Amino acid sequence: MKLKRQRVSSVLPEHHEVFNRMLEDPVIRKFLAWDKNLQVSDKYLLSMVIAYFSRAGLFSWQFQRIHFFIALYVANDMEEDNQAPKQAIFSFLYGKNRSQRPLFHKLRLQFIRSMGWNARVTREECEQIQAFDPELWVWGRDRALLP
Predict the structure, then answer these.
(1) How far apart are alpha carbons 35 and 49 in whole angstroms?
(2) Structural domain of residue 32, as residue ranges?
(3) Is 89's pLDDT higher than 80?
(4) At the top level of its lineage, which domain of life is listed (predicted)?
(5) Long-range contacts of 77-80 (CB under 8 A, 24+ apart)
(6) Is residue 94 part of a domain?
(7) pTM for this structure?
């Protein structure tokens, strides 16, 4: 008989708290409401944001709104095969103004470097992150449940 080894999540409670705090930000709330089809921000992509917060090595007070969008962009880059979700993030943040994109990409590279270039998050890790606070409203953002 083989026992399945379960990995212990390296995500600390303070990373969940940072994420929860960001969910109260009016811009982030507006973004999540804007993504009705969950193409950019379903529950797994949002779980990856928390994993990235954990890996980035920042103090909880250092996280800003832009970190949420950078982490979500990286999650989409890792999981989605097309450019549309990432372009949707830019459209929401900057509209048609392209002048901020180079700065965004510079910050994205710094963020990924701070994570030790480790952007892979398993489904098991996402589910462990969601299990920390299973009643959190964003875990209901499941593409499989859309009509």
Answers:
(1) 16
(2) 13-138
(3) yes
(4) Eukaryota
(5) 77/119, 78/48, 78/119, 78/120, 78/121, 79/44, 79/45, 79/48
(6) yes
(7) 0.90
